[in-house]
Amino acid sequence: MAELLRTHPLEGWSTRVERLPDTVRITVEPYVAMVDVRLGAVPAEASAALGVDLPTTPNTWVPAGTGRAVWFGPDEWLLTSTTEAPEELEARVRAAVVPLGGSATDVSAQRIGLRLTGARVRDVLAKGCSIDLHPRVFGRGSSAQTTLGQAGVVLLALSDAGDDHGVLVRSSLAGYLADWLLDAALEFTTTPAS
Predict the structure, then answer these.
(1) What domains sit in the chain, N to C, each tagged with a CATH number?
(2) Which residues of the chain have pLDDT under 50?
(3) How many Å apart are CA 63 and CA 129, to the nearest integer?
(4) How far is Cα 74 from Cα 56, in angstroms, rounded to an integer?
């Protein structure tokens, strides 16, 4: 049986962002393992079984080993790992949550990540996102399921300064969103005349 090679939906796109200034940097993140967790049990019990404190505050994320645990709803979280294979993460999480009445589903191929950094990132995001991204409101550890340029995304605040954000977008919309972000960042690529 032939082995299928996994190709990133934004393969080759990285060269298009090299022209962007330091005030707006867009980086294509490599694939990471992702598991959607649904729980019928108290999150504290699952946290103990998983070895990570699942966030219970709406619209937040916490570091979880080499990845993150993102709150998706009162009984739903997204767990990621940069070091485990998708099937390993799913098996480990499933073993921890099934005895508690929960479920774990590998969703690694569903979304890809982009990282936006720089002093003007909030300005770029504000062009297509209606949530308040000021660091007082959306600081490190905040997350939101929202739309960005009409694409459904999960937005993660990675710094308290508002200059570092992660964006998880469905693989099928990655090209569209990447083009939208480049267009939105265009005005920040030129230096204003003196």
Answers:
(1) 13-30+110-188 (3.30.1360.120), 33-106 (3.30.70.1520)
(2) 192-194
(3) 25
(4) 7
